[in-house]
Amino acid sequence: MSEFWLISAPGDKENLQALERMNTVTSKSNLSHNTKFAIPDFKVGTLDSLVGLSDELGKLDISAESLIKKMAQCVVEVMEDAKGKVHENLLANGVDLTSFVTRFEWDMAKYPAKQPLVVVVDTLAKQLVQIENDLKARTAAYNTLKGNLENLERKSSGNLFTRTLADIVNKDDFVLDSEYLITLLVIVPKPNYSQWQKRYESLSDMVVPRSTKLIAEDDEGGLFTVTMFRRVMNDFKAKAKENKFIVREFFYDEKEIKTEREEMTKLLSEKKQQYGPLLRWLKVNFSEAFIAWIHLKALRVFVESVLRYGLPVNFQAVLLQPHKKATKRLREVLNSVFKHLDEVAAASILDASVDIPGIQLNNQDYFPYVYFHIDLSLLD
Fold first, then answer.
1. Residues 6+ apart with CB under 8 A from 52
2. Integer Cα distance of 241 and 258 in angstroms
3. Considering the entire predicted model, what is its pTM?
4. For the segment 120-142, what is each residue's pLDDT rounded down to a tens digit?
5. Fewest C-beta in 10 Å: which of 199, 226, 235, 284?
6. DSSP category for residue 315
7. Does residue 156 register a pLDDT over 80?
């Protein structure tokens, strides 16, 4: 399971016993894997400031999660053919995300706990905004390049009616620089090849005998050259159409074809040059954003626990990793163990399990204990 529940309960004797009871029950019933979640002693400030921070942290939490999901998706898009290795590049401090969360330690160097809470939150917020702005700039440049390349590739992968012919035709396929002669390209359906060979010379006057050559094929037909006098070109096109041979409007321009080929080579080279630096940036900054996100979760637990349980600060945070198909039973156990913290909330949770027509109870995220959800399935 890539889901975690971050909870806290007061740190007095009664609740420490309740936590111990929870650990015993969840372990015996194989409901979850539990670990302590260490949170530093922050400067509390006023309760009014904590209320404001609680709201700000909630918004920051949502935007941080959105950012790391965007970054994870960017890694998928950049890696293209190596999508199976995406998770190897989505790490936090060099370890997989589950290991980082279960072994979380507050980074005192980056976010000094002795600073006022508002300063710590502001540092995290500014860091996330900077990463998001950089992400927009870097991915915009890469996506523009990728889009231009895809447009060129799309031109090269259509059928013979629509695709570019720059990578198909050669100078030798055409009569060039002639005042009187012109070479046309004709698309012939595969079942009509023999009919074309029999008829093309007689479709109009002044068609050069034995001037046709098959230069390309797709699933539907072939691209043939045919040379004739310029003066009969329109008559030949009309007769060809009557026989289900379609003349492809194309005039050989060596400069234009060279430019198109060079553009493709240039875009491929630029994409290759940008790939490595962009992927490295994504790896480093995904790690930074993810680490910041889990620090935000720790801050939310601290602020909510102080607001819920009061001063002096005394609570214990625990990280639960629910086992598959055990979430409902785990919730029941938590509710049973901690219902004394908020009898009204506990009762309303029990009531919410009964469907009452026409009534929607919006207390799914409020429990007798402090609770925050962490979901690591970032690519779902």
1. none
2. 31
3. 0.76
4. 999 999 999 999 999 999 999 88
5. 284
6. E
7. no
